[in-house]
Amino acid sequence: QVQLVESGGGLVQAGGSLRLSCAASGGTFSRYRMGWFRQAPGKEREFIAAIRWSGDITYYANSVKGRFTISRDNAKNTVYLQMNSLEAEDTAVYYCAAATITPGAFDYWGQGTQVTVSS
User: For labelling alongside 58, which of 37, 73, 79, 92 has CA 20 to 30 A away?
Assistant: First the structure.
């Protein structure tokens, strides 16, 4: 019922910034927990950040804490990932995800957007 489309990826130099956007349609976005994940070549998908439906609680992986910020605009059905101080190790495909069942895992995923950080 939920469709997610990521945008904002690209090539950036180390130390630079990017803002990813995830536009959602279908379902009831304002009630969903949203998250960002990433998968680097040859590596497993890893959790990056998540945000409660109300926006008052956020979670971050230790690898990005202090550098990345997740936010949401329920009026626009959009979740964002502001990425600062990017490092080569941040190079990956970034995926937006939605948890439509509150106590459950993320069950809807976007197709991903490539982020490449040159060192």
Answer: 92
